[in-house]
Write a structure and sequence with these properties.
single chain, 5 helices, mainly alpha, globular, Four Helix Bundle (Hemerythrin (Met), subunit A)
Length: 133
């Protein structure tokens, strides 16, 4: 079995996070449910946080729990400069969509969610070591 390369793993997670963020950006102005927009927002943030952990050689659990990932990132980096409650609220969109459950939540503020996801992405990428390219 080959050993994980944290840099490669982080690069893959960043690429996948960008794909989710791009889907969220495109869908935010479309007539599509909040659950789908929220799902891609949550997935982007989740993958960026995992990229930060992975880039530092920290093994992480494959979880959708943003609260847990924020705690792990904060322990490693020393900060997470965002409103944790706003970020953690995205967790509601992680799993229920996959099971067609109806979320009992307020409609999401798409502009605020877009801004938050973009900011978290920029911050997470700044936490990664420089690319070897």
């Amino acid at each position: 079995m080959s050993e994980r390369d944290p840099r490669v793993e982080a690069e893959v997670l960043v690429r996948k996070a960008e794909e989710d963020a791009n889907a969220m950006r495109l869908l935010a102005d479309a007539e599509i449910s909040d659950e789908i927009v929220g799902f891609h927002a949550q997935q982007a943030v989740e993958k960026w946080l995992k990229a930060v952990l992975g880039s530092r050689g920290v093994e992480f659990e494959y979880t959708h729990d943003l609260r847990r990932l924020i705690a792990e990132v904060t322990a490693v980096v020393g900060e997470f400069p965002f409103d944790n409650a706003q970020v953690v609220a995205l967790t509601e969109h992680a799993v229920p969509l996959r099971y067609d459950e109806i979320l009992d939540t307020e409609p999401i503020d798409r502009r605020a969610t877009l801004a938050l996801v973009n900011d978290v992405g920029e911050w997470a990428i700044a936490q990664l070591p420089p690319s070897s390219e």
